[in-house]
Amino acid sequence: MEMKRGIDLNRILRLCIAGLWTLAVLGCENSDSSTTVLEDVENQSEGQSGNQSENNSDSKAGIDPANASEDIKELEIVLRDFEAGYPDFDNFQSAAYQSQTAARGSTFDTWNFPGYGDNEEWLARRVIPDGYAIYGCGSQTTPEYGTPLLENSTQVWYGEFANCDEEPTKAMRGFVHDLCSDATEGWETADSVRQCNKRCKGYLWAEKVYFTSGMVKPALSFPKGEDGKPNLHEPNIVKARDACDNKYFEQWFTDNELNKRSEGTLPLDSLDKTSMGISYDWNNGGFYPLDSVSDKSEFVSVNPDFQNQFGPQSLTIYCPPYNYEYASTQEDNMGMNTASLCASWLLNGGPRVGDAAVSAAMSTNYVGLRHLRNSGFTMVGYAPFKYKKDAAKVFEFTSQGDLWVFIDGVLALDLGGTHLPAGGKVDLKSLASEGHGCHAGDPLEASCEDRVDDKGAWKDGSWHHLHVFYADRSTDGSTLYLKF
Question: Which of 6, 124, 304, 405 is 20 to 30 A from residue 276's alpha carbon, by CA?
Fold first, then answer.
């Protein structure tokens, strides 16, 4: 696989907007100032990368319980940013499948945007059934390639609703059982039977939630540090099978020429009296750690804590690169129509052309800046924690992208694939009783003597290790909810 990279005026403009918004407004397209800004931003990125490598090599000692927080209050994270056009991202699988069915009565004739109808690899992955049999994602359109998300043995639905208690004048998105109704048994027959009677009273749309399980192997591996102990800060996650456009999975969470790495911490907020976490979804603008945004959710600059990146390359709207039948009626979380923004994005090249998003945002009103973001990244989060038997802790997660949670190097939650927001829980008491992570062959088995009792269960007060792997591979939103 080869990714072409070039510098043109649009790319220079994107870099100006990413790092120096004021200069962009005052005339970044002037050739002299453009060159200066381009050099400054790229040199800054190279310096950041070098410093991070130095700092990283100095911190390979693993956990020091004397200096670690007993509860998870922040995550040590590594972000890897990918340039627009990366073939495992922004594939619009469901729309492509529907474009080939008799119900739509069309093929890829209108998918005439860079990276799609003109791309042999994308076309090969979208062949029915052979391409989807290898790279298909679980969804309501293609459920045979995924796993249904269940809540108390009932299929979970996700959708968009109106006339809500919290936002009476704007739409809200969320799980049907949270916002709309507990009675979804007959929802598959027709929209006319879908009625809301909970926090929201108006129904707009809803779909069943699926995810793609089994994409990764159930155990991590850890390189050895200089002290001979596992380096818990550089875990290796391994692909188990081809699925859901993961052809180049080995590149997602490793450093290579196709991504830019930044390191730092993800602070957690107090969610209730006993829990810390984060809560980002469509309703509040989504999870975009590479960006700095204003109080009005408008893009301002790259996040100064994570400067080694490609800058804003996408718009947080659903804008599939073909003649989408509902394009003219779509609205964002503020109730603003996004049809002209989507049309401008496509006119400038679409989701797989990095400069297209900036060009579209600059050519539209403030709606464009509110949706200009840097998506297309992966994140690895790490934190040690102390198990407290009486606390009865249950970790909770919801994501709109691939999410895998490992405890002591062993898989505890699998929400793989690109999908509608999907949630899951990790009950520490249950893991403790089964001695999770302390079975023969487990990656941290050597340290289990300190963690389990003579019955093989976790000791009260023992230390454990959380690793979270997350991939944001689509531009139409980024939901991430973590509760510890």
Answer: 304
